[in-house]
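go over this chain:
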Amino acid sequence: MTISRADIVLVYDPRFSGGTATAMLADARAFHGSGATVGLLPVTSGFFTGDGDRPNAAVLELADLQGFELLKPGTRVIADTVFFHHPLTFFHKVAESAEIRAETSVLVAHHPPFRGDGSLEYDPIATTRTIRRAFGTSPMWAPVSGVIRQHLRSFLPFLRLTGSDWVNAFDAGDWAPRRQVFDGPVATVGRHSREDVLKWPDRAADVMASVAPPGPGWHTRVMGCPVQALEAAGVDPGGWEIVPFNGEPVDRFLDSLDVFSYFHSDRWIEAFGRTVLEAMLMERSCILDHRLRETFGPLAQYAAPAQVPDLLNALRNDPAGTRSRCAEIRQTVADRYASAAIPDRLRALQRDPGTSRRDGPVQASPLVTLRKLAGLARREYRAARETEDGTAQ
């Protein structure tokens, strides 16, 4: 058996895109920048079933950089710390396995187990069991936000949670605004996200109120828009400028906006909201869904979609005040989420014994959680039977 040694090992499916991939890349570069050797163990998860699910090019490129070693399945790996990325990767099982011996083992929870409708999308207890079987280690769970921590508390004492959230990190130097907001005759409101209808409000009127021009002298610009799904729901995006997902560098896109407005479906729970912090680092005001208040607190304004037009005009009517607040918020975000802090955060994580105590708010009571687990098990069983029947035919 091949034996490899690394300071840090990352286990991940390279087909994840969006915030999960970006957050992992930021961590990997910060680990490398601190002098750590990084082992990369890509896996193939049953979570991805479509032919259109392609590996993230930036994630693949890590293996070509000095200081990163691509590990082979079946390898015996000795590491100080191993990070498993995204619970859905492992809940749906992976094709590869390895023997990992690490002082600290962590699963970074980029996604909540409960959906917006209260049903479960994955079982954290089963996910831990799958990782133990495939890799020989039982990780602590490191939520990326307080929202996910509240969800995961519902499964205690059958999990161990890290004492602190493993929040997304940013190199503020990569996010430098090139222009001030409201510097011309036309102001632009917009947003960016994956082309997923769940990333948008459910009602056509709410979609239009949240990003449509609130009057003359306004323009709408969005990057990543499920046009057909929104049109089927009654939305008219005819006057919007629509950029394909990742059609522009994110910083350049955000620099073209004056206000970032983000609202999502009632069926969606925003795990963290990396796109929001990117907008803040680009000194753009953020008008957000009330449900994001727990994550961003005083860094944003919160509203119902119908209130957005008035807020947009109020921001435009006070350009000096808006610019000043945006500059202050950028500094707060740069300090709180700095990539430079990752080495210190890693050392704290390596000393963290974890906790299984149900201290703090939970998403669901033990009885409700048990019912949801049973419901998820029934859905998974039916899906497996349907797959078997289809294969047999």
